[in-house]
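We now fix the convention by which a protein and its fold are recorded. Think of the row as the fold of the chain written in a discrete alphabet. Here is one such record, which you should read through line by line.
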Amino acid sequence: MATILLHKKKHIPYWLVPVYACLVVMPFWMAGFLTVMPFSYHFTSQSMSRAAAEIPAASFYQLLRLENHAFQSNEKVGQGTIGWVDAAFQSAAGISLRDPRTFLGKELPGFSIYDSQILIAGEGTDYTNLPVESKKPDDLPVPKESEPDETKENTPPAGEEKVLLYFTHTSESFTPKNGQAPMNITEVGTMIGKSLEEKGIGVSVNKTDIGALLKKKGKKYSASYEESRTVVAAVQKEEPSLSYLIDIHRDSQDKSITTARVNGQDMAKTVFVVGGEHPGYEENARFASSLHKLFEQYYPGLSRGVIVKSGSQTNGKFNQDLSNRAILIEMGGVDNTREELERSAAAVADILARFIKAEQNE
């Protein structure tokens, strides 16, 4: 009898105890995890849409075949599918076995720039020469607003203002190595604005010194977009017709990357930057893509392409959620000359005018 009882005792399901404990603790653990995780990783329709966009269509096709065998008869030879091991690594650690950059992105200083996505690559553009945002203000002072141009009174009115040109990093300057006097980024905005008006496009050039506002409020340079957002929102409230919001910057890359030979003349290259961390970024991306295509048509090689930026090391919005026609343009680099910038400013104005007039006539 003792032997029988001992035998039964050995078969007591002791493993049920930890299982029951896990079932009790699991809901609390999951609730805590979903609460403390960063907002950008919450399960929203936007985040799920982005995640699904990264999965090849062939993978969805395979899932359909698992549920409905009728799809098997139409299977295409050589149709690739995502590696489930790779998917597991991405889910657990954010690492892709097919993209070695993900192994290094969190470990090497400065490697975060490769989190940017090249939506459209212009001539010569790749992940080694993406635009570099200035991390601190330039030493040169922002020029004071000049007196109104009296000759402008003789210029026919351009109509209702539709384009707002502004500068989040107002201290960015160009210092050519040919001995030419330094030039501030706001001067490029003046050039673009003048050309737009000559083409009959109403434009407002806002030269609010964001750096001075930051200094006055005791904020860091990293808060520049927060401050420029306040300025842009206020201008929009006063002038609701301003729907094309163009934030003009200067790239920190050297001249070999930011200069192109177009129609026999050197010009400062442009690159369109779209913030990917707001629901309407796709519309802004389409806007930038349309402008790039116009550049390719009329000024081939001048546009470096369209870049979508997101992640913890960048702003991610760039105030582009304020309009579906909002973009950031990097105009040339630190070494570009005034003449190169003047030519490019005229080209940017030409492209913007063509796009706006085409939309108005639709």
Remarks:
- The longest helix spans residues 338-360.
- The two ends are 94 Å apart (CA to CA).
- The CA atoms of residues 169 and 249 lie 7 Å apart.
